[in-house]
Amino acid sequence: MTTQDTRPPWPYPRWIAHRGAGKLAPENTLAAFRSGASQGYRMFECDVKLSLDGVPFLLHDDTLVRTTNAREQFGAGLNAVAGEHRWSALSRLDAGSWHSRAFAGEPLASFDNIARFCLSNGYFLNIEIKPTAGLERQTGEVVADHAAQLWAHASVPPLLSSFDPPALAGARARQPQLPRALLLDALWSGWLETALTLECVALVCNHALWDASTVAQARSAGLRTLSYTVNDESAAQRLIDLGTDGLITDRVDLFAPARQPPVN
Ligand code: G3P
Ligand code: MG
């Protein structure tokens, strides 16, 4: 006999494109979102941090080196820490050439522009708060404030997630109504209690962490169960069979969300 699921309905699609679908196009750029959308994706994950002057923008790494032309643009004595540059300088960088010539000149994306793209098209968003070191709480606060304003008239809010409990605490303090998820790359001591203290609605785990026991613990605590980064069919099937709720993938070319069953 299966236990009745008393959790509130989950408004998000099962399949989520990672970094805005950032394999076929440069990660965390508008081009990546367009690429994922062209493959049928309706929900996206992206990484958001703050510029020196407090503008939220999309970038995974702490530094600009891997995914922009900052070395070329800022010259030899480069300070590569992304969060130590103003948005006026960051917004002039080329965040596409590193990927391929087809995307030369693609800019870094401001969070507000990506939000507007999602809202105009009816897409769902998972905002991973990815703070520059030392700015964990502040980043959670600012990102939550922007998200609350941008989604003020939307029927489904974005899902805020972070590996950093202080970032989620900042988001909760400023905009408690926005749903939160704790990201886990390991089951560190107190993971479930931390998620509950932060009033999270979900856990987003490295997919290897999910098994019958961890799924049952999360479910009985009222939490939804999501995974990153699910890039092969056997891993996806295992997670679906376990009854988990969301799969974040790079392989938008392999998994066709329109053909997948919805979350119950
Ligand atoms: O949010 C899920 C996933 O993106 C976490 O890992 O390093 O790709 O941001 P990372
Ligand atoms: Mg991420």
Strand content: 15-25%
Helix-strand category: alpha/beta
Shape: globular
The CATH architecture can be named as Alpha-Beta Barrel
Number of discrete helical segments: 9
CATH level-4 homologous superfamily: Phosphatidylinositol (PI) phosphodiesterase
| Strand and helix order | EHEEHHHEHEHEHEHEHE
What Rg do the Cα atoms give?
A: 18 Å
> Which strands sit side by side, in order, in the main sheet?
1-9-8-7-6-5-4-2-3
Ends: how far apart? Answer: 17 Å
Major pleated sheet: 9 strands, mixed
| Fraction in helix | 25-40%
Extended strand count: 9
Look at the structure and give the mean pLDDT: 95
Ligand inventory: SN-glycerol-3-phosphate, magnesium ion
What does this molecule look like?
Helices cover 30% and strands 16% of the residues. With 264 residues, the protein is of the alpha/beta class. The chain has one domain: Phosphatidylinositol (PI) phosphodiesterase (TIM Barrel, Alpha-Beta Barrel), CATH 3.20.20. A nine-stranded mixed beta sheet has the order 1-9-8-7-6-5-4-2-3. Helix 7 links the parallel strand 6 and strand 7. The longest helix has 15 residues, at 136-150. The radius of gyration is 18 Å and the shape is globular. It starts with 14 loop residues before the first strand and ends in a 15-residue tail after the last strand. The mean pLDDT is 95. Bound molecules: SN-glycerol-3-phosphate and magnesium ion.
